[in-house]
Design goal:
alpha+beta, 2 domains, seven-stranded antiparallel beta sheet, five-stranded parallel beta sheet, 23% strand, binds flavin-adenine dinucleotide
């Protein structure tokens, strides 16, 4: 008999789950509380949809249960996802290792998946939130916000996390999972900006610059103080926050440490291009090849400069005026102070700040500004292709699970791959038909 599979959430994971279940001949009921499918998917990658990455390693994913990660990672099949999209006519291309649809429009993927599920006869229920699910003798009894009830042999929760509430993600899937016996690890916003109360940042508000960013956790000077990770790329300064891909990549670890009450600092090297020439360990970047001379030569040249010029003029050519103002302020000076009047130590301090600029982190951005949720349904309660070990017939796909990818396409890859795999698994199990009550 034809199996009925209900899918809650028509995002990247839910759409793939619906396609997977339909491909196995199941009758599919797909619910979303939004008025259209894939709202978040269409907004990803600044609207371009960075769906995958050329580099694919277990290290690109994190979980609050790291001991479970290898098992789950083995279930992610990026190449299968890319092939499925290309089979649907969605041509892909890669730029600097990041994979996008050829159109550079995330909506292309949403549209393609929408056509696919429509052709397969999926019953789409938009503006209809799944509010409750119960196990009965004949499968799941599913209730929605419209007051309707549905029966299904299998239920796939693909409701995302808490990140991006403006796209319909309110965490309601966690409640449904909890009511069916599951537990969640601690949740927090991730791939997001980091907030600071450091007043000098306002001088640099609006600046974007290439930096190396180090995340340091623990009290300064304590034995337990440790550099956790380091990232390279373009950072963006805000009045009370710092963002950009390198900061997003560090935000998960920073958020975890902050929730544990640990002091968190970022240390920025605002001139990482000099590393290659000065023999530092952070070498070999193509960008660095443009810089002539070593940092030591540059340092000596500036230190010997005796012209009657301001700090802003003295740093001109090394950095933009707003960053010069921020560095001067951190040193208790202003960008207008004359270089000649500074002590040798003050000059040295200004130059040193360019390579070692510390920012105390006060918090992470809100869910509204976060790309993903760190934490989710415990991986230890998941077996096989993302199936519940506690509730037969219940499956999970995407961000609702406690697995978080780095920036770079990993979260969409996971959502789509887990969706495809649970859709097929759910359609191959279960027993009863679907009745709309
Ligand atoms: C601005 C932004 C940019 C991003 N860019 C990228 C990127 O370029 N590359 C990348 O890999 N990742 C990116 N991400 C992360 C990525 O979009 C998500 O991790 C991914 O979409 C998760 O897919 P999902 O299907 O699990 O959940 P979602 O895509 O969040 O979909 C969940 C759906 O479930 C619906 N829903 C929730 N509760 C219910 C309910 N009770 N009943 C019915 N429906 C419900 C929601 O309305 C939503 O449509 C970005 C995220 C954001 C916010």
């Amino acid at each position: 008999m034809k199996k009925t599979v209900a899918v809650a959430g028509a995002g990247a994971g839910g759409l793939m789950a619906a396609a997977g279940a339909a491909s196995q001949g199941a009758q599919v009921l797909l619910f979303d509380q939004n008025d259209r499918i894939g709202r978040k998917l269409s907004a990803t990658g600044n609207g371009k949809g960075n769906i995958a990455n050329c580099r694919m390693e277990e290290l690109c994913y994190r979980s609050e249960e790291p001991e479970e990660l290898s098992r789950i990672y083995r279930g992610i099949d990026r190449d299968e996802v890319l092939q499925l999209l290309e089979d649907r006519g969605i041509v892909l291309h890669a730029r600097q290792g990041y994979i996008y649809p050829r159109t550079d429009l995330a909506a292309t993927v949403t549209e393609g998946l929408g056509q696919w599920i429509a052709e397969r006869g999926t019953e789409l229920h938009l503006r209809e939130a799944v509010t409750n699910a119960q196990i009965t003798a004949s499968g799941f009894l599913i209730r929605t916000g419209t007051g309707a009830e549905y029966r299904a042999d299998a239920l796939i929760l693909a409701t995302g996390g808490m990140a991006g509430p403006q796209f319909g993600c309110d965490g309601s899937g966690y409640q449904i999972a909890r009511s069916l016996g599951h537990r969640c690890t601690a949740l927090r916003p991730s791939l997001t900006a980091l907030k600071t109360e450091d007043p000098v940042l306002r001088f640099a508000a609006g600046v974007r610059c290439l930096s190396k960013v180090r995340l340091v956790i623990g009290k300064q000077g304590d034995a337990a103080e440790a550099t956790m990770s380091e990232e390279y790329g373009e950072v963006q300064f805000g009045k009370e926050s710092i963002s950009g891909i390198p900061v997003f990549q560090l935000s998960s670890e920073a958020g975890r440490a902050l929730t544990q009450g640990e002091p968190v600092r970022l240390i920025l090297d605002l001139l990482p291009e000099f590393d290659r020439n000065s023999g530092s360990p952070f070498s070999g970047r193509k960008d660095a090849e443009l810089v002539g001379g070593t940092w030591e030569q540059e340092w000596d040249r500036r230190m010997q400069d005796a012209r009657n010029i301001s700090i802003a003029e003295w740093l001109n050519g090394l950095t933009v005026p707003k960053l010069a103002a921020m560095i001067a302020a951190r040193s208790g000076l202003t960008a207008e102070n004359k270089i000649r009047k500074l002590t040798r130590e003050q000059r040295a301090m200004l130059l040193a700040q360019l390579r070692h600029f510390e920012i105390a982190v006060a918090g992470t951005g809100a869910y509204r500004d976060a790309q993903v949720t760190a934490g989710g349904i415990r991986l230890s309660e998941i077996a096989g292709p993302f199936a519940s070990v506690l509730c037969p017939g219940l499956y999970f796909a995407g961000e609702i699970l406690d697995i978080e990818g780095m920036c770079g396409g990993y979260n969409l890859t996971f959502a789509m791959s887990s969706g495809w795999s649970v859709g097929r698994a759910a359609a191959s199990a279960g027993a009863a038909g679907s009745v709309r009550n």
